[in-house]
Amino acid sequence: MTRNVPNRPSAFIYGLGLAGLIPFVGLAALSWVPEIMSESFSGRGLASYAAVILSFLGAIYWGLAMSGTPSDSTTDRIWLWGVSPSVLAWLAQLLPEFWALLLLSGLLWVSFTMDRIYYPKYQLQGWLPMRLLLTTVASFSCVVGGLGIR
């Protein structure tokens, strides 16, 4: 199977990534203003969005594993990691919102760490600067949102 993945994000993809931060930043900010939106809504909305993003990040690994490169020797771990973010994010949803957001923030960093390990094996290290920025803002938003609903 051939792989047709750019080795770094285009300006359009970078823009999509930045646009994906709008719910993180917006809901984190709204968690501090309960007069506008209930703390429960902003906290649960933020936690749900973070869980969806973590599922998306895990799914990337299924795509990489399906490509069959760089070698089949690592694909079992890649398949396993590919499902882990969504399962762990789902478990986080069972926690009170404050703790869910802190756990989700940490899971975003675990996901980035896995990217730092595996992306170079797929010649995708050019994506890491964008991933670092997105992870930083998203995880910070989860912490800020958690503190806002505390």
Protein architecture, described:
The chain has about 150 residues and is mostly helical. It has one domain (about 35-150). The chain contains six helices and no strands. The protein has helices at about 10-20, 20-30, 40-65, 75-90, 95-120, 130-150. Helix 2 runs antiparallel to helix 3, helix 3 runs antiparallel to helix 4 (about 75-90) and helix 4 runs antiparallel to helix 5 (about 95-120). The longest helix is centred in the middle third of the chain and has 29 residues, at about 40-65. The protein is globular, with a radius of gyration of 16 Å. It starts with 10 loop residues before the first helix and ends with a helix.
Helix content: over 70%
By DSSP, the count of extended strands is 0
Summing up helix and strand content along with how strands pair, one would put the structural category as: mainly alpha
The multimeric state of the shown protein is: single chain
Order of helices and strands: HHHHHH
Q: What count of domains describes the coordinates? A: 1
Strand content: under 5%
Question: Residue ranges: pLDDT <50 for 5 or more in a row?
Answer: none
Largest sheet: none
Distance between the termini: 49 Å
Principal-axes geometry comes out as globular
The value of Rg in angstroms is: 16 Å
Helix segment tally: 6
Roughly what is the average pLDDT, rounded to an integer? Answer: 91
